[in-house]
Design goal:
This is MerR family transcriptional regulator. It holds the Pfam family MerR_1. InterPro entries: Cbl-bd_cap, Cobalamin-bd_sf, DNA-bd_dom_put_sf, MerR-type_HTH_dom, MerR_fam, Meth_synthase_dom. It is a single chain. With 299 residues, the protein is an alpha/beta fold. It is built from 13 helices and seven strands. The strands form two sheets. The chain has a five-stranded parallel sheet, sandwiched between helices. Strand 1 and strand 2 form a beta hairpin. Helix 9 packs parallel to helix 10 (189-200).
Length: 299
Amino acid sequence: MGHFSISDLEQLSGIKAHTIRVWEQRYDLLKPVRTPTNIRLYSEEDLRRLLNVATLCGRGQRISQVARLSDEEINAAVLACCDDGHDYHLQVNALLAAMLGFDEILINHLFSEATARMGFEKMMLYIAYPLLQRIGLMWLAGAVNPAQEHMMSHLLRQKMLAATDALPGVPTSARRWLLFLPIDELHELALLFMNYALRLRGQHTLYLGQNMPTEELGVVCETYQPDAVVAVLTLQPERGRVAEFAQEVSAQCPGKLVVLYGPLARQEGLVLPPNCVAPVLMTDFLALVSTLEKEPVAA
């Protein structure tokens, strides 16, 4: 049974609704069902096929030719054509289609090819992060189920851990960063990427991960003596407690720069302690790191 409207398909694929209708009517590309009120609804298979067709047409192939291909031939063509390291939208479309089909082999291939062309950091910034944003939109539209989202998150987590592990060690005299997620916060991908980016830039990191009680930070800061403390706030703490959380972290780690990242740290009207900053984008965080690199490390 279909459950996506044509406006859902337009938003998720980037293809205009008028074009989708033309492709459907002229080439029998999609197979919608109709509600009792005559509204077209499209299936997950329709969305996956549209994403793949959009990828191929975006590379210059004619819709009349693509529409004649079987699903297996379309998948093979997508795999062969995603070799442009600058065509990020098409690569995201191909990954979304592979995710909808639980095609882990294709997902790994696409990520590996992109990393080989662009380097891991650029792959994460220009492909993985836009991909996660699109998955978020699909979640809101009911176009992705938890298993698909968990599979993609797990694969990205694996890749970030492996990429971080492959980096050379850094001296303990380097600038020190303490990274953690608050209690009940489980969304770890942004923090893992920050850890990778810092290590790549020769910074020393202590990664505490998920579910870190704020009251335990004092002992860690006293022993580790970080220059900066980083937390990612996606769903926790509760929206009304973010300012209080920032005060608690500042009190546990006095004199340290506190970096709060994520949607909860960007809410309008939020007042943070003077030693706290809240970068809007990941590129803003990386710019902050670059600025601090120019300053001498505290003795």
